Amino acid sequence: MSVSKSRVLHRSLRETPPRAIGGEGVWLIGEGGRRILDASGGAAVSCLGHQHPRVLEAMSRQASKLAYAHTSFFSSEPAEALADKLVGHEPGGLGYAYLVSGGSEAIEAAIKLARQYFIEIGQPQRQRFIARRQSYHGNTLGALAAGGNAWRREPYAPLLSSAFSHVTPAFAYHEKQDSESDVDFVGRLAAELEAEFQRLGPENVVAFIAEPVVGATAGCVPAPEGYFRAVREICGRHGALVILDEVMCGMGRTGTRHAWEQEGIAPDIQAIAKGLGGGYQPIGAMLASARIVDVIRDGSGAFLHGHTYMAHPLACAAALEVQRVIDDEQLLDRVKTLGGQLERRLTERFGNHRHVGDIRGRGLFQAIELVADRATRAPFDPALKLNQRIKAIAFEGGLGCYPAGGCMDGRSGDHVLLAPPYIATSDDIDMIVDRLGHAVDSALNSVGH
Ligand code: PLP
């Protein structure tokens, strides 16, 4: 890390990160030509890798025609085409796309649309949301209130709305008892959700909000079979909506366009971002059920929300091309195949590792969890900052990965999240696991393990 003075207010105020000066497929290039294999696409963003020629060309074409027009005056061709691409076929009943600039904005829109829907249908008493612990929905205050990441919430707790309460996540490695079957575990979580509805008064609940595969807060945690169907049933019975946050796990990352396709349910409202634009432009979207939007259209007629840069033409053109490339190059199939390889290679390398307790994920969204003791699943002392050591050593060795942890309600500890670009090769996957293996072992050595 360089210590030169920077006027950019970076996350760390003491260290300025090195500069990226180029990109090439799965590689990021730093000053001096240093090449970093981008094994996590930043934070599960760069699904097509870097400098994809088709996306650059689409952006340049759009920029030469129109970079920006405010949505209170105009729609635009790329915005209309992107919305058609995303919801023209009404996947799971989702019929409208509200195009924003990122994941947190998509979640804020989801929260507000859900609330407004109930006002419009004469149920204004519905003001409560149920979310889950060990989740992340974004850093703006509404999204942060929805999230259950104790460490991120803590400093801002007095500012966070009490409209959100949190139940146990479907995190089998830490929450499922050894004696419990998956069916029993799902049954217990469903009973807890039902009890939370009863505590709040079922007629007061707007929505349940969850990530289908939990991302950065817990490290690629899918729910056990049947969990989301149970959630759907409970919410349906009480007239509440289901909001799914696919900001990280969506847009093909798990091998299907939407992660919910693997759960046998569809949401009423969904948030997407990261893989939508693949990092080529800042863009996110809230996808909303036609049923909900039609009620508002036929009621007050307007969604009471908005941002200056929504449906930005250049961002929409970039995202549209990213999604077309995913289809044209059949990348969802590739995610399934490469995801299988990644999971196998992680299992070969870490399956018997004495400090790797769990290997989990779906598609090209896989994580390993590090534990001090495999038998008790006890995490390492957060003071060791093991995940940060892994990140630094991996980076030195030419690997960009996304370790996190030590901040999750004291139960789960450090994990390393991998989310390689969909265009990676089989050799890239092998290289990722080899480099990660070296970084994990070196980091453990450095703390005496
Ligand atoms: N939701 C999830 C599941 C995320 O992983 C993130 C970001 O990491 C967000 C929401 C917030 O997205 P953004 O950082 O684009 O605001």
Automatic annotation (TrEMBL):
GO molecular function (one): transaminase activity
Pfam families: Aminotran_3
CDD domains named in the record: OAT_like
Gene3D superfamilies per the UniProt record, alphabetical: Aspartate Aminotransferase, domain 1 (3.90.1150.10), Type I PLP-dependent aspartate aminotransferase-like (Major domain) (3.40.640.10)
Superkingdom of source: Bacteria
Alphabetically ordered keywords of this record: Aminotransferase, Pyridoxal phosphate, Transferase
InterPro entries per the UniProt record, alphabetical: Aminotrans_3, PyrdxlP-dep_Trfase, PyrdxlP-dep_Trfase_major, PyrdxlP-dep_Trfase_small
Similarity comment: Belongs to the class-III pyridoxal-phosphate-dependent aminotransferase family.
Protein's UniProt name: Adenosylmethionine-8-amino-7-oxononanoate aminotransferase
Originating organism: Bradyrhizobium algeriense
Taxonomic lineage: Bacteria, Pseudomonadati, Pseudomonadota, Alphaproteobacteria, Hyphomicrobiales
